[in-house]
Amino acid sequence: MSDAIANRRFVTAAEKIDYLSPWTLEEWICRGDIVNNEHLMMVRANMEPGRSHPFHSHPTREELIYVISGKAEQWVGTQKKILGPGDTAFIPMGEVHGTWNVGEEMLVFLAILSPAKADEPGLVDHSEEEPWKSLRAP
């Protein structure tokens, strides 16, 4: 780890790491290659209308999702809620969940995960498994 990362206490917009995933444009603000973290990871997700991050789980991390703008159909287990700006979802470690942009504008949310240093797998896809496959039919 470089000295700059080991001693970084602030992350500017120029220092974040952008990644275009299959679901969103991810703007990573807190992870091991940005700051010397052990407990928290944070990413700002920018999801286009009609897109989703289908049912998945994080077996070794818990997660908070905080909506900044737009409208999310958020699933935690088999519970569903429409979230808007200022709303939050808590996802316990290993809980299956999914996020759909059901609005007409970009859905922007923060995903905060803990711990940062955790065993793999970090993400498990459940979108082709029952009951998840049939729970939210297109």
UniProtKB/TrEMBL annotation:
<feature type="domain" description="Cupin type-2">
    <location>
        <begin position="45"/>
        <end position="112"/>
    </location>
</feature>
<dbReference type="InterPro" id="IPR051610">
    <property type="entry name" value="GPI/OXD"/>
</dbReference>
<dbReference type="InterPro" id="IPR013096">
    <property type="entry name" value="Cupin_2"/>
</dbReference>
<dbReference type="InterPro" id="IPR011051">
    <property type="entry name" value="RmlC_Cupin_sf"/>
</dbReference>
<keyword id="KW-0479">Metal-binding</keyword>
<dbReference type="Pfam" id="PF07883">
    <property type="entry name" value="Cupin_2"/>
</dbReference>
<protein>
    <submittedName>
        <fullName>Cupin domain-containing protein</fullName>
    </submittedName>
</protein>
<dbReference type="InterPro" id="IPR014710">
    <property type="entry name" value="RmlC-like_jellyroll"/>
</dbReference>
